[in-house]
Amino acid sequence: MTRLVTAYSNPLVKHARNLREKRHRRESGQFLAEGLRILTEARESGRVPRLLFFTGATAAHPLVVRLIDAVEAAGGEALETTPDILSKLSGKDNPGAVMGVYDEFGATLDDLDRDASGIWLVAERLRDPGNLGTMLRTGDAVGAGGLILVGDCVDPFSVEAVRASMGALFTVPVVRCEWDAFLEWLRGGPGQLVGLSLDTERDYRAVDYAAPTFLLTGNEAQGMPEGYAEACDLLVKIPMLGRADSLNAAVATAVMAYEVLAQRQK
Amino acid sequence: MTRLVTAYSNPLVKHARNLREKRHRRESGQFLAEGLRILTEARESGRVPRLLFFTGATAAHPLVVRLIDAVEAAGGEALETTPDILSKLSGKDNPGAVMGVYDEFGATLDDLDRDASGIWLVAERLRDPGNLGTMLRTGDAVGAGGLILVGDCVDPFSVEAVRASMGALFTVPVVRCEWDAFLEWLRGGPGQLVGLSLDTERDYRAVDYAAPTFLLTGNEAQGMPEGYAEACDLLVKIPMLGRADSLNAAVATAVMAYEVLAQRQK
């Protein structure tokens, strides 16, 4: 049985709204995702929200019905609400058809199977949630084994990151760890660590990538710390013909990842 | 002589703050840019702000001094202000060291010299300002002749687009036009129009790109309209190995653009 919720003061509405803030995500261990496409992607990957918000206008949509069924079968709550409340939860004037509150999840380095893929993405002190989500989306597209977040990265469960991932947050494994732990894990098996750097003349296309390749991108403003470059098996650069010395971090990662993929597919 | 401005109610502060909204940009024909790096990039490209805001903390920085000199030489106003006001103008807790108010500029199709570059970026109904700015930044990096915005695209002078461009807005020509006008101009000279599409089996790396190449990316959610694909000389796709059927629009453009660049550099 779905319930009807029409008051902003409803505690479940307040809880969902608060998940836009990091502090509330940390306290509750839950996060917010929006849109029929993303929630359906999540459902098909086995992730069902604890709370599902939808409006009367879309309640009969077959994909919404399947979400409601899945939520109720898993013991969660499906809540019909007003367009105004959905808009408030979303923070957008034109919210998606549904919003879901999910339990956070995550993998550890030991959960990863490095033989599962020939391409892995590694980001160091990534600060922009849009970049994080976009990297996940790219990771899905190139069949990456996962995204490893090293050091103080932005929260992958932020609303902006989830949105930019277009559902890939639910399908691409994400691990958060420190640099030393990552290196120790990496060197415990095969793996070529390739760092994107400005301090090399080696073109990213002039390299033979050895599977599994771990593509390391540093902080958006500063790149990676000096000591990190020394730990890499290879440093590569992407040609820059213009005035700027760097690409957007998610773009740079994608350009490298597609080169690795092309070599694998040869 | 620089002036000191400490009141939120100062009309110049209010004007600058209002430029965060599209309506005020349209009415005044001005826009806002932030950060020492971007404003310096602009200055070196010959664009000097009408109004420059800075704080006492950075007033003696050599690059700030050069900006102040350039603004005053051009008849603009350099205004020392408080960190609070700079923060308000920026919309961020940690604003850049400077903010500038610039006159909008723009090129028309007839201003473009298609022989100037072998790569051009074309975006159709691009809706996300971050994507637009990121495309400009990529355009700078691959040496693109310009970014042609077709149809109802987001404002390239929005704060988010300027920020994501990292200064490339000032260095990469941007043209806004309708599809028919673009096609007419394109067919008036050499040019290969390559559309990114889901409805083709042709891999983007299995193509010989003929200079000048015009890379067309459609709307983030819908791709390009059907009739547009028919007008392309070639349709290409980027391999998608995961669950999703598309990449972020700025990422897809960059992956294609770097393939074209690699062919040119062979």
Largest interface: A-B, 37 and 37 residues
User: According to CATH, what is the class of the largest domain in chain A?
Assistant: Alpha Beta
Estimate percent helicity of chain A.
Answer: 25-40%
Indicate the low-confidence ranges of chain A by residue numbers.
none
Mean pLDDT of chain A: 95
Strand content of chain A: 15-25%
Based on the structure given, which CATH architecture of the largest domain in chain A is correct? 3-Layer(aba) Sandwich
H/E element sequence of chain A: EHHEHEHEHEEHEHEHEEHEH
C-alpha-based Rg of chain A, rounded:
20 Å
Largest sheet of chain A: 6 strands, parallel
CATH superfamily caption of the largest domain in chain A: SPOUT methyltransferase, trefoil knot domain
Which topology of the largest domain in chain A does CATH recognise?
Answer: Alpha/beta knot
**Adjacency order of strands in the biggest sheet of chain A:** 8-7-6-10-9-11
Quaternary organization: homodimer
Number of helices of chain A: 10
SS content category of chain A: alpha/beta
Described by the principal axes of the CA atoms, the overall outline of chain A is elongated
**How many structural domains can be distinguished in the coordinates of chain A?**
2
Secondary structure tally: strands of chain A: 11
Terminal CA distance of chain A: 53 Å
